[in-house]
Records
---
Amino acid sequence: MLKGFFTAAGTLLIVVLILYLAYVCSKYIGRAGRIKGTSRYIRMADQITIGQDRTIAVIQTGTGYLLLGITASHITVLKELGAEELQEIENPDGQKTEFADFRSVMDRIGKRKRNE
């Protein structure tokens, strides 16, 4: 009887540990996507993935910007942009776009499930 209790408690502890480690790892992986480069002359202002191995990026170079198309084998300058051509896009609910962390995603899923 006591051996079964310790087995169940040990299994539960392992599951909780795995979930905690998944949370911590996803938190750091999410931050890795937001790491800014260490270049003194250029920086990535924004990027969006539009398909497998396909990205559109806005690169700041001094006072100008470049709109780049990036694939696995090519980088193409799509357009040169001025600072006045960039405009921050808002979500349909009026909030600015932000990176979602693991906790906020899980909270949103929980709210959806409770409303169903």
---
Amino acid sequence: MLGETYDIKPSPDKLFYLFTSEGPKGKINKIVLFQRIRANRYNLAFGDIKSGRLDDETVSDNLDFVKVLSTVAACVYDFVKTNRGIALEIEPVDERRKMLYNAVFKRHYLFIRERFKIFGIAKGKTGPYAPGKMYDRFELHHII
């Protein structure tokens, strides 16, 4: 899954990572943010940096989606090296991203499951991830 990535700049505590997308719309600063929900559980959020804050609703369309997604994955793998045994929650902010995340998980399922137990949440019910099913949210449990 990890193809070409942008250079990442982690914060000292590795709770956020910065990188810059480059494409026809210019340079766009991005952030990957790990928000602690409770012990060993984090929400994964990412998006553009606008006015010094995370904007996870903007669609940049900088024609580098695969490289951006690979960079986000690189941030996740770096984060779990420091925070072993954690769980990550991933909740798309809109229907478009929900479809996209489902497609990404389906396509990269074999790679992701080498490092994480994957759970899908659909209609409020959590169960083991099945590549053919549509989910509202995802949970990744890092395998130590």
